[in-house]
Each structure stands twice: as structure tokens, then as C-alpha cells.
Amino acid sequence: MGPDSYIQAHKQNASVEPILTYSGKSGTLKDAQYHSYIMVPKDKVNQYKVNGKFSLEKIKGQKMSFVSNTSTSGFAIPAGAIQTSFKLKNKDDLQQSNKFFSKVLFGGSHQGSAVNLLKGDADVAAFDDMDLVSYGKFTNDSTKAGADFKINANAPAPFNHVRGKESIALAAIQSKMNRLR
Q1: HSE (CB half, 13 Å, CA atoms) of 58?
Q2: Tens of pLDDT, residues 94-112
Q3: Burial (Cβ within 10 Å: 0-12, 13-18, ≥19) of residue 54
Q4: Please, which residues bridge with residue 35 across strands?
Q5: Contact 50, 57 (CB under 8 A)
Q6: How far is CA 171 from its chain centroid?
Q7: Deepest of 28, 36, 116, 139, by most Cβ within 10 A of its Cβ?
Q8: Band of the pLDDT at 11, cuts 50, 70, 90?
Q9: What percentage of the chain carries pLDDT values higher than 70?
């Protein structure tokens, strides 16, 4: 169950409580966090810079891959960043091709969204760090725009066809797990 599903279930019945979740280094929710990213292929990152800085400004009209429209870290959080950046009234148009993006794909998982990006089916993709770190690593600061994620040379499926490929974050949005309560 993702964070958004938990929030909805807890609103319907206050006795719904998580029995398992990620924790921070302290072993508690106090410092538990993850990042949602809006990424582009490393070899195309300069197309998305404005005045030498990473920017969302040029993603409009591109092919976009989200995880699913019910994913908190793979849709709600990155779509919220896009909505804020472009001062959109709502996120509805972000889910449909030929509205804000020329094409919208849903990878079905964080891995699927990343593969859509790295194999060239999407120009831009949203995914989180928690679901990808077993397939690759960040080669620099993963907490901000410019974070560089590289797929391991021995990564298993679905990354076996994109091993060694890299993506760069135009945006890195931190979410704290203790905000769920």
C-alpha cells in the first residue's frame, strides 16, 4: 500500500494503521524520507537547462512517463511540482497525451517508468529513489536537482537492456514518511 492509499484508508477509518514501513537511520519514522524525481537522460540534460540551471521549463510538450496515476511518489508528488512550476489549476491534463505533454506513458512501476526513459520511449520520467537503488546508484548528491542516477553494469531485468545508462534529475522532491500520520 502506498502513502496515498494509506492516507485515504486512514481518513475512512482512523483505526487503519501501517504495520510496516521504511524507517530512517534512527530506525524510526522521525528521519524516514524518500525522494521523487523528474529525470531526463544524461546525454540530453543540456536541452532542459535554462541559464545553465536545471529547470522544468522545457518539459512541456515532451513525452512523459509516470509510474501510475495512483502513485504518490511516481505521480502525485512530481505532478505537484510540475503544477506549481507551471501554475496549473489542476493535474488532470498531466495524465493525458496531447494536453500538457505530447505523450503520457505509465510504466506501471518505478522501474517501468525509469526503463521508459532510459530506452528512449519517454523524454522525461518520474520515479523515486527507494524503488531504484537496488538497480543502480547515485553518483553525486541525490537530494537535489542534478542528481545523477546510473544503472549498475550487472542490473537484472527490467534494466538488463539499459545497463550503464544514466539519468539526471531536473527536480528532486523530498518527502518525509512521518508526514503520513
Answers
A1: 16
A2: 999 999 999 999 999 999 9
A3: buried
A4: 174
A5: yes
A6: 9
A7: 36
A8: confident
A9: 84
What is the side-by-side strand order in the sheet with 148-151? 103-106, 63-66, 124-128, 33-41, 166-176, 148-151, 136-138
Contacting residues for 99 by C-beta, under 8 A, at least 6 apart: 93
Nearest-angstrom CA–CA distance, 117 and 177: 27
For residue 68, pLDDT over 90 is answered with yes
Max intra-chain CA distance, the chain: 50
Q: Per residue in 114-169, pLDDT tens?
A: 999 999 999 999 999 988 999 999 999 999 999 999 999 999 999 999 999 999 99
pLDDT score at 174 = 87
CB 29 within 8 A of CB 21: yes
